[in-house]
Design goal:
By secondary structure, the protein is of the alpha+beta class. The chain has four helices and four strands. α2 crosses α4.
Length: 127
């Protein structure tokens, strides 16, 4: 599996995002929250992912953008944890719920935790 995050893997559909927040389930590992929904896509991808940082907590666009870049990078490097252990397609939205700007190490460990929680919850429901 390639460690990429290309255009086909990005969650952009407004309808799917609305459906994700209304019908999706979530797991949390501070400072991240993962909202997910099992879905089917026209492209041959297993995951479509988006990231979000609230303007309420980070007024400066520079801070929001740097956190989003960090989230996308940790997702890109660790998506293999999820990608290799799921059978169906999922839509993900990763939300940053912390109040202060994280370090890369904190973001990486939170991403690993949130993916392992997702896998544990997903495996339990498929039994």
């Amino acid at each position: 599996m390639k460690f990429t995050y290309n255009k086909s893997e990005k969650l952009k559909s407004e309808k799917l995002i609305t459906k994700l927040f209304s019908e999706g389930k979530s797991v949390s590992a501070y400072p991240l929250r993962l909202v997910y929904l099992e879905s089917t896509f026209t492209e041959a991808v297993k995951l479509k992912t988006g990231v979000s940082v609230p303007k309420r907590n980070f007024k400066k666009a520079v801070d929001r953008i740097s956190i989003k870049r960090m989230m996308r990078e940790t997702y890109r490097l660790h998506k293999h944890m999820v990608y290799n252990n799921i059978n169906s397609s999922f839509a993900f939205m990763i939300l940053y719920v912390g109040k202060e700007k994280p370090t890369y190490h904190e973001m990486e460990s939170a991403t690993k935790k949130i993916f392992s929680k997702f896998l544990n919850k997903n495996i339990e429901t498929n039994k």
